[in-house]
Amino acid sequence: MLVGVLVLTSLDHALRMRQVPGVVVPEAVLDRFGQSDDRASQAQVGRDLAAEQIRRIQSEEWAGVYLMSPASHDPVIDVLRAGLT
Asked: Is 60 exposed, middle or buried (0-12, 13-18, 19+ CB in 10 A)?
């Protein structure tokens, strides 16, 4: 079974995704984004969160990860580098 991980890009993105049926964005994720006051640092928070999720998924021995990023593959590459080291 694969686990889907979306690389969130900002607090606004997290809030929009929270409205999608079946998508879970915990309050702790919103809090992490809320600690950053500009887009670049929020984008890094999203990448960090995704990398943390990948490491957690690896430790739980799932079959794999389906990693998604809106509009660009650059965040996915960064997350893979951070999460698979």
From this structure: exposed
CA torsion sign for 18, 7, 46, 52 is positive
How far is Cα 85 from Cα 80, in angstroms, rounded to an integer? Answer: 8
Q: State the total domains in the chain.
A: 1
Of the candidates 65, 48, 75, 81, the residue with the CA atom closest to the CA atom of residue 3? 65
Where in the sequence is the domain holding 46, given as residue range(s)?
Answer: 2-83
24-45 tens-digit pLDDT:
999 999 999 999 989 999 999 9
Strand, coil or helix: 3: strand
